[in-house]
Amino acid sequence: MNVAAALAQPQMETAALEVAGVRAVCDPRGVLYFAEEHLLVVSDLHLEKGSSLARRGIFAPPYDTGATLSVLASAIAHYRPSAVISLGDSFHDPEGAKRLPEVYREALLSLIAGRDWFWIAGNHDPHAPHDLPGECVRELALGDLVFRHEPSRGAAPGEIAGHLHPGARIVRRGRSVRRACFACDGERLIMPAFGSYTGTLNIRDRAYAGLFVRERLTAYMLGRNSVYPIAGTALS
């Protein structure tokens, strides 16, 4: 990237947090970065969702994979991690990797090259992606942290998961704002869905019951260029 292009990039305002005592930053692009470990984490890419819907007769513009990989490339170029964990549902269905257009396959290969890459198995993609490098595992333990796709029930200190596509809603002066978010109570963190065609599920939904200590829950809401930490007690 040349200097002019770099200067044109918007400044990203991150938010710091700790999971089981391990420090990380939330990035408004929807990635989590552990600086000491040089580790970047992303969840629920749902690549090739558009083509998956098309196979079922549901029209959607076929640009989701390109848009998702473009944002991911931006995050990787910024942090230059030595390892990346994709926390499951990286592809929208088990055949998604086979349907990757060559231009997107090459783009993904360029992101994987030169670093450790871990595919966590998801409910949409339970097997290793076809013809792509990287290690596919059910879960991954690194020190005090455990990375898996679906959050486990009950206490799980150090767990970082995805699957639920967390979102948060606040109301200020009669105006309602809803955004995807990182949800964390200091012991467990649930990642926002990264894919372009993914929605959100309000973290006050009963699907999250028992996952967090409500009094310590913070929603790290994603703005265009900033992350906004909002206490769980302030959410609607």
Q: Explain this structure to me?
A:
With 236 residues, the chain is of the alpha/beta class. It has one domain: Purple Acid Phosphatase, chain A, domain 2. It is 17% helix and 31% strand. The strands form 2 sheets. Strands 8, 9, 10, 11, 12, 13, 14, 15 and 16 form a 9-stranded mixed β-sheet that branches. A hairpin with a 4-residue loop joins β15 (218-222) and β16 (227-231). The protein is globular, with a radius of gyration of 17 Å.
At the first level of CATH, the class is: Alpha Beta
Helix percentage: 10-25%
CATH architecture: 4-Layer Sandwich
Please report the total strand number as a whole number: 16
Could you provide a short overview of the structure?
This protein is of the alpha/beta class and 236 residues long. Helix content is 17%, strand content 31%. It has one domain (13-136, 144-234): Purple Acid Phosphatase, chain A, domain 2 (4-Layer Sandwich), CATH 3.60.21.
List the helices and strands and how they pair.
Elements: H1 3-8, E1 15-19, E2 22-26, E3 32-34, E4 39-42, H2 49-55, H3 64-79, E5 83-86, H4 102-112, E6 116-120, E7 135-137, E8 139-142, E9 145-148, E10 159-161, E11 166-172, E12 175-184, E13 188-190, E14 201-202, E15 218-222, E16 227-231
Parallel strand pairs: 4-5, 5-6, 6-7, 9-10, 10-13, 11-14
Antiparallel strand pairs: 1-2, 2-3, 3-4, 8-9, 11-12, 12-13, 12-15, 15-16
Helix pairs in contact: 3-4
